[in-house]
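Sequence in, structure out. Go.
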Amino acid sequence: MTTKRVWVLILAAFCLVAALAAAQSKAQAGFDRLKNLVGEWEGTGANNQQISVSYRLVSNDSALEETLHAGKDETMITMYHLDGDRLMATHYCAAGNQPRMVAAQDAKSPNAFSFQFLDATNMANPDVGHMHSLVVTLLDKDHFTQQWTWKEKGKEDRWEVFRLTRKK
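Output:
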């Protein structure tokens, strides 16, 4: 192999490693921003429904657990975590299924996390109703929103928007 080819291979390997590191650091940076949600929150949903949400770091700070209380007996859990170079959310829904979603971040809006459906457990087929996307927008240290989209029988519906404020 010629010296030129060796240098080309070394340069290509370096570029690949740098690209993987950048992707992973972007996901890590996003997860680190979401960690700022740790604490207690309150807010409103559709029809001014009162909700409360709490966040805590679990599993040696490798996952962020969200517990959302809406209504009398409706409690749902969402776990935010890294999967290699991806930031993910797994939603344990009151519908009894567990959608897994992957975040796509817009470089122009680093505080908006658009989680899109990847797959789900305990879902018999794609037509079963499930949370299909989630957009978390960090407005400032004491305010954020969540926009949930429901999908059933091939149709998406913007299901819920939560506006949350940190409890003092």
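Check: The two ends are 66 Å apart (CA to CA). The chain is about 20% helix and 55% strand.
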